[in-house]
Design brief:
The protein has 71 residues and is α+β, with helices and mostly antiparallel strands. It contains one helix and three strands; from the N terminus they run E-E-H-E.
């Protein structure tokens, strides 16, 4: 029997709103770092570290993250 698509996804999708008003949708966060007592809090740190890497490569700083919520 075939499985439903997406039922065993390795990632959780998040929308990110930045302090300058910009929004990025469907940012992927590994499911394994979420849950437990912290809930979705580890996603914020993970996305910040991704933004730092992107800024380093692009040479343009990213605005600080204001809100992180599941898509």
């Amino acid at each position: 029997m075939a499985r439903k698509p997406g039922s065993k996804s390795e990632f959780v999708m998040f929308d990110v709103v930045y302090e300058d008003g910009a929004m990025r949708s469907n940012r992927r966060v590994p499911k394994e770092i979420l849950g437990g007592v912290e809930g979705d809090e580890p996603a914020h740190a993970f996305l910040e570290s991704q933004d730092q890497e992107i800024a380093k490569v692009s040479g343009r700083p990213m605005a600080p993250i204001k809100i992180v919520r599941r898509s």
